[in-house]
TrEMBL record:
Alphabetized Pfam families for the sequence: adh_short
Segments traversing the membrane: 20-41
One GO molecular-function entry: oxidoreductase activity, acting on the CH-OH group of donors, NAD or NADP as acceptor
Originating organism: Hortaea werneckii
Protein's recorded name: Ketoreductase domain-containing protein
Family to which this protein belongs: Belongs to the short-chain dehydrogenases/reductases (SDR) family.
Keyword match Transmembrane helix: yes
Taxonomic superkingdom: Eukaryota
Domain Ketoreductase: 58-230
Keywords: Membrane, Oxidoreductase, Transmembrane, Transmembrane helix
């Protein structure tokens, strides 16, 4: 590793092996090497060997791919010539040049019948699905008592039940394949926190995290299907994204919770998928350590939430959403 170059260079210019400079740099290099080794062993024990991908035969499905994070990932794969199926209720607005492998399928993933219909057409056009990126999402942004029955039902249909629908639709063919597949679950760090005016959204995201972990356990505990041990799973729990989904949300604290650029998150998701790895992606830094918040006494948790401004972020969101709908001629909800 590169860290060993420092003590080696020091020795090459005649520095004594027992000098404080050589000893300190050797200790540092040893520490970094040990941490890397422990991380490697941890990933191997938890997730096994990386999956080998053959991009000539890979077919990527991205739900909520008409805009935001989903659209960016579709563009990344499309520019590489990868076969991509976009599932959304609205058609994406982009230049089709250089994106011949990307096909749009109008599909409400909150309905199992729509997912099944899309599967048949995708397999006919592109082939069996090997990579499923569940990204579709909507936000109501209302206090609990202001949510209508329709708001609640639609939230859970898109933000939670759609994942069950797509998994039940596309997972069987991955299990039957000797090459397995990759499943990406785009949840949210709010699924671990909860937030004011997001009771429906955070409940669904918490359900996604639990569902993803249960799916991982099920795949580990079965070996009957040919591809069970070659299916890789990636759980994504980002903070606030700079996408249309949360446009109008007041950034609570640029220090405690900086906004995540969707391009950076898309790069990390694509990198992990390309590497055939399983794992978790949490951005920004605080999202990786948020579970430790629950270790604190309740009073300190409350102070931390106030300092971060979590529960004030949705103020004005409804007015922004209404203004956007008026400006767009009320085009309806976005699944991205």
């Amino acid at each position: 590793m590169a860290t060993w170059l420092i003590p080696l260079c020091q020795r090459s210019i005649g520095a004594p092996g027992d000098s404080i400079q050589v000893l300190s740099t050797t200790f540092y290099a040893s520490l970094i090497t040990a941490l890397w080794l422990f991380g490697f062993l941890d990933r191997k024990i938890a997730y096994g060997q990386p999956r080998e991908l053959d991009w000539e035969n890979e077919v990527v499905v991205i739900t909520g791919g008409a805009g935001g994070l989903g659209k960016i990932m579709a563009e990344m794969y499309g520019m590489r010539g990868v076969s991509v199926a976009l599932l959304d209720v609205r058609e994406p607005e982009w230049e089709s040049e250089g994106m011949a492998g990307v096909k749009f399928y109008r599909c409400d993933v909150g309905k199992r019948t729509d997912a099944e219909k899309a599967k048949g057409q995708i397999e006919k056009d592109l082939g069996p699905v090997t990579i499923l990126i569940n990204n579709a999402g909507i936000v109501n942004g209302k206090p609990l008592l202001q949510l209508s029955d329709e708001d609640i039902q639609r939230n859970f249909n898109i933000n939670l039940l759609s994942h069950f629908h797509t998994l039940r639709t596309f997972l069987p063919s991955m299990l039957a394949s000797e090459t397995g597949g990759t499943i990406v679950t785009v949840a949210s760090v709010l699924g671990k926190l909860g937030a004011s005016s997001l009771s429906d959204y955070t409940s669904a995201k918490a359900g996604l995290i639990a569902m993803h972990n249960s799916l991982l356990a099920e795949l580990k505990s079965t070996s009957a299907p040919a591809g069970a041990q070659k299916i890789r799973t990636i759980l994504v729990t980002p903070g606030q994204l700079s996408t249309p989904l949360f446009a109008g949300v007041k950034t609570p604290s640029s220090f405690f919770g900086p906004v995540v650029e969707p391009v950076e998150l898309a790069k990390e998701i694509v990198r992990m998928v390309d590497a055939g790895e399983s794992g978790n992606i949490s951005m920004p830094l605080y999202a990786r350590w948020i579970e430790w918040l629950h270790v604190l006494p309740a009073g300190l948790q409350r102070v931390a939430r106030q300092m971060a401004g979590i529960d004030d972020a949705m103020e004005g969101f409804g007015m922004h959403r209404n203004a956007a709908k008026l400006g767009d001629g009320v085009k309806g909800e976005k699944q991205s």
